[in-house]
Amino acid sequence: MVTLTLKKKSLPSHDQGKPAGRGPLRGPGARPRPTLAEAQAQRVAQQQAWEREQAEQRDRTERRPQQPQRRDGGGPLSVNNQRFAQNLADRGAPRRDAPPPRQQQGWEREAPPQRGHDDRRPQQPQRRDGGGPLSVNNQRFAQNLADRGAPRRDAPAPHWQQQPQPEAPRQYPPAAPNRPLKSVVNPQVARQMGSDRPGPSPTTPVNRPAGLPSAEGDRLSKRMTALGLASRREADEWIEAGWVRVNGRLAVLGQRVRPEDKIVVDPAAHREQAQRVTILLNKPVGYVSGQAEDGYEPASVLLRPENQWKEDQSGLRWHPGHMRSLAPAGRLDIDSVGLLVLTQDGRVARQLIGEDSNVEKEYLVRVEYHHGPRLPDSDLALLNHGLTLDDHVLRPCKVSWQNEDQLRFVLREGRKRQIRRMCEAVGLKVVGLKRVRIGSVSLGHLPPGQWRYLRRDEFFA
């Protein structure tokens, strides 16, 4: 068995840990405290001693030689750099037996000797940084460059030393024979002013460069419309796209053609035209055919996917591209309903509303007659032919009774509010108007406010 004995550590006394020579502040053995005057005198003595020490340090620094400093301001140089700087200073110091420089001897600067082409001895090259002459190898290299660049004796003089030669007279081509030019001067005005030069004849031919459009004939777009190729807008688009050629040359916008010119349309234009759609809409009351006016919305706002007729047999479905460049071919008043055609195809538009259009349009018109029990037969015959609107004799049309209060109109032209104004001329008041057929395309069972695509096998004429 091992027995461990723990010794109690003695606690340090109050006097341990105190700096030597420092007595207690109070009690027995305390040092006497200096008076205020003694403390001030002691402080002044310490300040004077510190100032003397600083002055002695400044004197030692001024007597010490200044060490070379770095060019970049980074402080004094190292020992090796100081020795290198000292060697450079020793080498650059003038020797005792060396003659004084020319500036101190009073010599004047001599002018450099004139050198000619034969004197090829080059001056000893100097360094660009002013560090003295070049080394032997650099001098040889400079000598080789000077020898190569020296002008040869048989070489021509530089262009700045050559004498200017007189210019030879400029030769012009012979003048062309006189040709009749087109002038804007009126011959009568020229004779009144006393000019003896006659004006050009109206029949004077004008020479036009080959390939330019002719100034005679009709515009190409108008000619294409007359031939039934496209509408004017489509023709301009095809010409701009490069799909039209006249006599084998690419057509340009604004070109004029003659009846004997041959017009050829690229098949790509016909394929693009075949992709354009025509839409049949049963317009209800309260919509205008074209742009919005007087707070009424255009009928085109009804052409939405949810309004497409479920029994549409065209095989086409609504696409945003089908709404682009869609224009109405014909119009219906705000109070009229029935078949409205909207198309992207200019041929269809020209066929239905062109100046030479001959497509029939059938209407059912509900009327009221307040001048007797029934409309006289003479007035009914006048509706068929004989009326004039806006100083224009209307084309013959077909008007007959559909039932007691409804007439059937078949027109071949479409003037503004034509049917209503015709009825007013014979004392009839129109209370309802519906278009049911355009050419061979009928409204059928298409519900009001809905639409369908024109089928590929349907044609208006």
Relevant terms:
461 residues; alpha+beta; Structural Genomics Hypothetical 15.5 Kd Protein In mrcA-pckA Intergenic Region, Chain A; nine-stranded mixed β-sheet; three-stranded antiparallel β-sheet; 11 helices; RNA-binding; PsdUridine_synth_cat_dom_sf; isomerase; RNA binding
In short:
The protein has 461 residues and is of the alpha+beta class. It has helices at 36-63, 79-92, 102-105, 136-149, 187-192, 220-226, 232-241, 267-274, 346-353, 377-384, 418-425; strands spanning 218-219, 244-246, 249-250, 256-257, 263-265, 278-283, 327-328, 337-343, 361-369, 388-389, 392-393, 398-403, 406-411, 428-438, 441-442, 451-453. It has a domain at 218-274: RNA-binding S4 domain (Structural Genomics Hypothetical 15.5 Kd Protein In mrcA-pckA Intergenic Region, Chain A, Roll).
